[in-house]
Amino acid sequence: MSQFAINILFVGASFALYIGIAIWARAGSTKDFYVAGGGVHPITNGMATAADWMSAASFISMAGLLASGGYANSTFLMGWTGGYVILAMLLAPYLRKFGKFTVPDFIGDRFYSNTARLVAIICLIVASVTYVIGQMTGAGVAFSRFLEVSNTWGIWLAALIVFLYAVFGGMKGITYTQVAQYVVLIIAYTIPAIFIAMQLTGNPIPMFGMFSTHTESGVPLLEKLDSVVNALGFRDYTADVDNKLNMVLFTLSLMVGTAGLPHVIIRFFTVPKVADARWSAGWALVFIALLYLTAPAVGSMARLNLMTTIYPEMAGDVEDYSEAAQEPILYADRPDWIRTWEETGLITFNDLNDDGRIQLYNAGSEDFAPIAAENGWEGNELDVNNDILVLANPEIANLPGWVIGLIAAGGIAAALSTAAGLLLAISSAISHDLIKTMINPKISEKGEMLAARISMAGAILLATYLGLNPPGFAAQTVALAFGIAGASLFPALMMGIFSKRMNNVGAVAGMLSGLIATLLYIFTYLGWFFIPETNMLANTPDNWIFGISPLSFGAVGAIINFAVAFTVSSVTQAPPQEIQDLVESVRYPKGAGGAVAH
Amino acid sequence: MADDKSNAAAYWSANVKTIAGCLVVWAFVSYGCAILFRPLLAGIPVGGTDLGFWFAQQGSILTFIGIIFFYAWKMNQLDKKFGLEE
Description:
The structure holds two protein chains of two kinds. Chain A is built from 24 helices and two strands. By secondary structure, chain A is an all-alpha fold. In chain A, helix 6 packs across helix 21, helix 7 packs across helix 20 and helix 11 packs across helix 21. Chain A starts with a helix and ends in a 12-residue tail after the last helix. By secondary structure, chain B is mainly alpha-helical. In chain B, 77% of the residues lie in helices and 5% in strands. Chain B has two helices and two strands, in the order αββα. Chain B has a two-stranded antiparallel sheet. The two termini of chain B are 19 Å apart.
């Protein structure tokens, strides 16, 4: 059977499964649609949350980020998982007790202010839409690579599938399809990792293999990797970073961003009890950790595999690395996986010194320049896109064709499950918070469901359009999504629970100042609305205030939000008694009941 | 009614204390061991690198899981103790 046929089989079978589940679990009422009827088991919910949360970025890009950045990019690992700790202790149980459907619901009711509700709706929509563009593009890449269709068709196919199960199933359909998607994606991620860990270290568990001995050379794997990259002018893989403030703030930004992202928060409304919301956050992190503990191993092993593919003499017990570095492979002898990926344009080779060999090294390093000149190298000749590492792993390690089919299905599952969760968050913000609560409170349940479905269809079309015509800043918008969620929604939710004294004026002032400060800082360095050439300062560490990168500013925005909110609320009137009673009541699990339909 | 109120207040302060304790551990492993104190941990070797690197890529995530389950367990105890469980 050809590889193409195998891919079709795996992807087709997984889709049949998701659509089957969507039909079985189709939503009958708004409560089914928004919170899956409120009766999801915490372990099931944890699994669905994990699939919801782990996007194409986690599945496809993270190992590549770690492979290229080494220790410095550990921020992604700690930031994206550490957010669950604050989510579990500071938000999830209380929002579950509050018992309504959405994030703007809580902010609007708690701060007895439709202005606050509107600000929350806007933040939610901007954060979710920017995030969903990346998912559609990711799904498009996976479809086009594995199903051999054009990128455009890939994106349309992805949109059609999401439409089918998200629009009809709502939260109920999404919850159970996400469970299936989790199983597909985690199997797809770990199987190749296990094989590769076995090949390199003889240890089948990647997270342990990473810290054990590299079989071929007899030295620890990470020490081996450090020597190899060092011999080619790159920083040591495990090297410490100089700018610790920025690393701390970037990690913190990802943590508060994670805790403030609405599509993750709404997942905790679907469990029966407050205690279940706490357990559920723990289970979500367990399922996420299965991938997040494996990713660093995949990253380091893929980097080592790539280097020793190009420099075969570096693989074994090497005495003189600088000598081994002089014999890269001939371009004519390159392995098949490089040929395959060259066709997609994600690997490019340019023989700068016409010697027919592939020189892969750090051409940007001044220290290494004399050595390169001595070897007759005229620049780095192989460009490898970070995103292909996970997708190409089975080919790099010579794994059988069915593993490649599995990876295809897993990558698509990761992108689609997150896209569906985001679309649901957007559609409920529009149909429930905007239409039902603010514009037409008399709308019937049927009318509200229709509005939810129409706004979801509209959101899918918008996301597809933006996926097809990416605004050129897709990568930067992820920072924007996290910055907005972390600097505006997270502090408002937290103060709403932990400070009885926090009033409407304080919360609105806090949200707006956190949001505006973050936007200004990002736009200063990345351009107004990301339009190239409109940035006021070059985006270089020298220009950053205290060396804080625009990606890390979400944490500072959150601090500004807290500070402004407390200052303003302390000089304005305390919230009315019924609001203080509401805050009192969300703090105690007793009497939660089901998520309230209203 | 007054009893109810002081009971609830005691429950909330126990909750806040638990959270504070968990957050100290949370910050210690991630911002502390993995980032700020990494140079201090450089002398402790772990599989070809040092303990700080292990905390950054594995240890902090494992600790986070521990913290959430501890918190969920502890809060269930408190719910029962103060008669506030569902």
